[in-house]
């Protein structure tokens, strides 16, 4: 299992390759929720999401091990991050994306000199293709979340947050495959286990919620949610045991609640946060945590939005 020392090493490895993202506040959000809210703004991170943290750590390690080619299977943010870091390190990268991939994210991958390859609609179709490409080109495949270097890299967000906000009570984190929240859990629980870490999933993509309830990894059928970065079929083999051991709670949010949070962030805080990144805000606005008077950090995990889709992300 990844440990706190791994996260600290990752921080040293990726220093200078990522931004230290700001923590924003909103008096209106504080008033609406009855808590003191701190918004960890990874939508302002390089490549527009937290994914650069894990990608930077994993790709750098792969290059140290002699990889001459990097591949990833990603619907967007992970692919962008891998393409960017590979380009920075002078190694070619191929990103395998679904046939219905977000055009804005695909354009960004291409902008970072990543070669885009379309394949199917599910990760079960994309991953074998990305793995095959790596094997054929003396390369290494970088998974989006189920990889020790990726998890450790994501955990650097937790270290950073503890330095930025003192005496936190709760950290709220969106869950897709679990790489981000697993890394944060390792960092936070290794330093201050009294801080509660709560995950958030869309109720239409509740694979981690079901897996925790069933006490084993439980896959769900292909689903749809505007929070496309949280649309995984099951938690990872590495991430799930970490969640089982350390996660304090997990709440679900509806599509309408995510839309309301997206609108709130855009309209009232002037921050363009993608629906996946707004999921944790949705949980707070909907009162899902049931707490008052607490110091709470919310992770805004990404801000890569196709502007042509904004209308579909707003409440009716």
TrEMBL record:
PROSITE patterns: DEHYDRATASE_SER_THR
Cofactor(s) recorded in Swiss-Prot or TrEMBL: Mg(2+); Ca(2+); Mn(2+); pyridoxal 5'-phosphate
Keyword Magnesium: yes
Record InterPro entries: Ser/Thr_deHydtase_PyrdxlP-BS, TrpB-like_PALP, TrpB-like_PALP_sf
Keyword set, alphabetical order: Magnesium, Pyridoxal phosphate
Annotated ranges, domain Tryptophan synthase beta chain-like PALP: 17-302
Pfam families per record: PALP (PF00291)
PANTHER family: SERINE / THREONINE RACEMASE FAMILY MEMBER, SERINE RACEMASE
Listed name of the protein: Threonine/serine dehydratase
Lineage of producing organism: Bacteria, Bacillati, Bacillota, Bacilli, Bacillales
